[in-house]
Here is the input.
Amino acid sequence: MIKDTRFWLTTFFEEQEQTKHPYKSLKSQIENNGCFIVKADTYTVKIYTPELAVIFTSKELPARNMDTQTETIVNGWEYLKTYIEAYKEGEQYFETEFKVSPNTLYGANAEQYVRDIHLNFFHVQHTGINEGWGYVKKQYPIILTHKAVKEFGYYSGIVNKVEEQVKKYPRLFATFDKCEHNLPPQQTETKTEQEQQTENDFTLSTIEDWLFEFKEKMNEADYKNLVSALIQYFERGKFPTLSKPIQINGRPNKKLFGWALNRIFEAKGKGVEKELLQFAKHNISLFTDVQFDESNILKSNLYKYFTTQTK
Here is the structure.
């Protein structure tokens, strides 16, 4: 079996804003048309985010091999075949599980049919991380692997089939995208629980993705304490008080570790906040000896360790 190497696209997401990739053009196409269409032989697939479209149309993507910690170039085209095959599987799944007769579409069960698709499209947690089939319309793989691309392809195929149904039966699906689509009270409550669970899983997945390369530098208890502390901060806005600092073994790159924490906070819509720097200074052994002036954090060495992208 070919090893599915994990690649962090180190500068890709910054460069796209500088128009070094056709990001803006692809973003405009998707905003205007709802997707970017790729034709492969006789088969057509849809891609729903400009980031994923850039990956699949770029032969040279700067990346870091997360296993060897070396810089390399990744050919995004090599992942397109994986996406297409999974896309076909997703379309077939929908045809098998959700294709119904005209009697259902126009009969007494029509509303339940639309409700079932609505819940699966927007609310049901299918992957353990993302909410609803439709997550592919707003997300993209942070860490590039064939496994992640396959998942995006599979659910994109399902999304395409759903949108075909919506277009074909506009009156039946008129309230499809409305969350108040006659949801019974119990289902509304379940949806709220699912939303919270999805958010929790996304937070945990993001933390583990960025701390993956440092996990072996900590014992199990310290690693769990760090993950739990970050989760508590995102949930409550306050870090816990630890009985002892989290010990980072060996000599890992301080800037690389700080940048990883930076990316976790960025994924949660936050910047490098004073509370994070205070926590790192007093609770992560790697940073306890780093200069940190709480009255002028931007000039502190600790802040620089967290905001300098390491190649």
